[in-house]
Design a protein that fits this description.
By secondary structure, the protein is an alpha/beta fold. Helix content is about 35%, strand content about 20%. Strands 1-2-4-3-5-6-7-8 form an eight-stranded mixed beta sheet, with helices on both faces. Helix 7 links the parallel strand 7 and strand 8. It is globular.
Length: about 240
Amino acid sequence: MNEVFVRTDDNIKIAFNLYSNNREECVLICPGWFMTKDSKPFDDMAEEFSKTFDTAVMDFRGHGRSRGVYTFTSNEVKDLEAVIKYLRPKYKKLYLIGFSLGGALGILYSAQNEDVDKLIAVSAPAEFWKIENRMWHPDAWIPTLFKKFDFVRWLTIRAGSPFGKKVKPIEVVKNIKCPTLFIAGSKDPTVLPWHTEKLFKEALCKKRFELFQNCRHAEDLFMEERGKFMKLCLKFLKES
């Protein structure tokens, strides 16, 4: 694994880990708010995907080894653009998998560009201001406490204002041309499943929707049902 740095159009340094085995296809993994490329769930996930594809996992601005402050989807598409600009010329096919706000960013990017061959959006919100984010609910804090607690990672998070101008994923999802897999957890306390279901219904591309019963939010689906999650994603990415 190599750590790579690129710069965005607004001069923010973005970091990503690249697991390269000289394959022709690459998966780019996009974590959501408060998660980084070096968080254990995404480190483990990158190792799983790298058994089949070259794999990259990135830090959005305001997270981990990237600079700047996080703007909750107002500016982070620029981060994706910078990483994809680096990766795209190296691969015959490039796949994008985003989690939570990372999934929203995958939708926003793919709606504007046609250089992603397939998209997987996991627990993506239809629009930012309708995210439920019930932090008091046990299904929200228990996974954080017992599975994702990482004090060092928490120290790297730098939040900017959430009030910047935002494009709503639900308003642009119809513009996506590439095949898209929408995934949600039935017990998600942060982005309730209706978000993903609505995005799926509005999409006009070749599409599929999968609801993981009794699973929670974003990377929790991988952590709670690793075998099922990987089998579903790999089948989708491999099929013609």
